[in-house]
Amino acid sequence: MIKSKIFFSFIAIEIIVIAFLYTDANHTIAARNAEVQSKRELVRKLSLTDFAVFTEARYTRHPSQADTFSAFQDFPSSMDHFPAGSIVGPQRGNN
């Protein structure tokens, strides 16, 4: 009889803890969404570009700002000088 009371007490405590964590997670998600919205507003007001992904070539630093031919500006069939060029693919146009 005592083992069952201990078991049910343990289960009740676990349910309370899980309910607390669930409500805390919902509060955290709401706070995170508000933070993201305020950062988006700041970026829009300051007219900032996207973050710098790599520090090498200009077409890998800001992929959305580069043209499609900038990787081959020295010579059309030249090899890419920077290792990040093999990681960052060409940007797709709005077709």
| Proportion of residues in β-strands | under 5%
Structural class: mainly alpha
Distance between the termini: 72 Å
Round the Cα radius of gyration to an integer and report it: 26 Å
Give the topology string: H per helix, E per strand. Answer: HH
Q: List low-confidence stretches.
A: none
What is the domain total for the residues?
2
Q: What is the number of helices?
A: 2
Strands, count: 0
Q: Helix content range of the residues, please? A: 40-55%
Shape: elongated
Biggest pleated sheet: none
Mean pLDDT: 76
Overview of the structural elements:
With 95 residues, this protein is mainly alpha-helical. The chain has two domains: 1-48; 49-90, no CATH class. Helix content is 52%, strand content 0%. The protein contains two helices and no strands. It is elongated. The model has no long low-confidence stretch (mean pLDDT 76).
